[in-house]
Amino acid sequence: MSANSNGRWAFEPAAIPSLPIRGSDARFPVHRIYCIGRNFAAHAIEMGHDPNREPPFFFQKNPDNLVTDGKFPYPDRSEDVHFEIEMVVALSKGGKNIPIDRALDHVFGYGVGLDMTRRDLQGEAKKLGRPWEIGKAFEASAPCSEIIPVTEIGHPTQGRVWMKCDGEQRQEGDLNQMIWKVPEMISYLSDYFTLAAGDVIFTGTPAGVGGVKRGNVLVGGVDGVTELNVTVV
Q1: What is the three-class DSSP state of 64?
Q2: What is the mean predicted confidence (pLDDT) over 183-204?
Q3: Which DSSP state fits 139?
Q4: DSSP secondary structure string, 150-193?
Q5: What is the pTM of this model?
Q6: Which residue, 157, 106, 146, 158, is CA-closest to 229?
Q7: From the CB of residue 82, how many other CB atoms can be counted at a distance below 10 Å?
Q8: Which residues face 191 on adjacent strands?
Q9: Is the alpha carbon torsion for 23, 201, 204, 35 positive or negative?
Q10: Which residue among 78, 126, 146, 182 is buried most deeply as judged by most CB within 10 Å?
Q11: Domains and CATH numbers, the chain
Q12: 45 pLDDT higher than 80
């Protein structure tokens, strides 16, 4: 019997976006994706911004932008698609106005993701003062690893964040260089949104972002968390 056979839905609902969980047959259902911008000083500088600590800002990707099959299809309407390697935080519960000292209680686990960006389209949007979604929230723009539970790795506060393209080192930083730390991100977001179980946060990228082309192999990771291997197709 289909989900629409009883007339409950106008058409078959889409599948719930989800991520694999290390050591479990269960999957992590994704509610929303929040991404923090310019959270590493060196990356802020390379993007032409002041690296001084300013209030954090976030943009969103769509949950169904996630891909876990190790493939990134080069998107249409762009000639300048960039990689950005990031640690990913997966929440097991949410709320509003979460205190910083309780924020980590809401974390289920961590992973590694790529915030793939149509940089040319993002640049045009910036010039016009428009939202970034056309450059950030396109199909398959969020390749992601499995989620590693906190019970296995704890809460990483330091560890190399790195990315290689076809074996060449392109990005390298450390979690301890993040301007806004994970508890601060969770607390700040909860002041403006009602966070929920299944929310995912991309925590920012170090310097060295760059363009990709079809056939490139991207390998990156966060030491102490996991690695991610993606082929541009």
Answers
A1: helix
A2: 98
A3: T
A4: HHHH------EEEEEETTEEEEEEEGGGBSS-HHHHHHHHHHHS
A5: 0.94
A6: 146
A7: 19
A8: none
A9: positive
A10: 182
A11: 18-232 (3.90.850.10)
A12: no
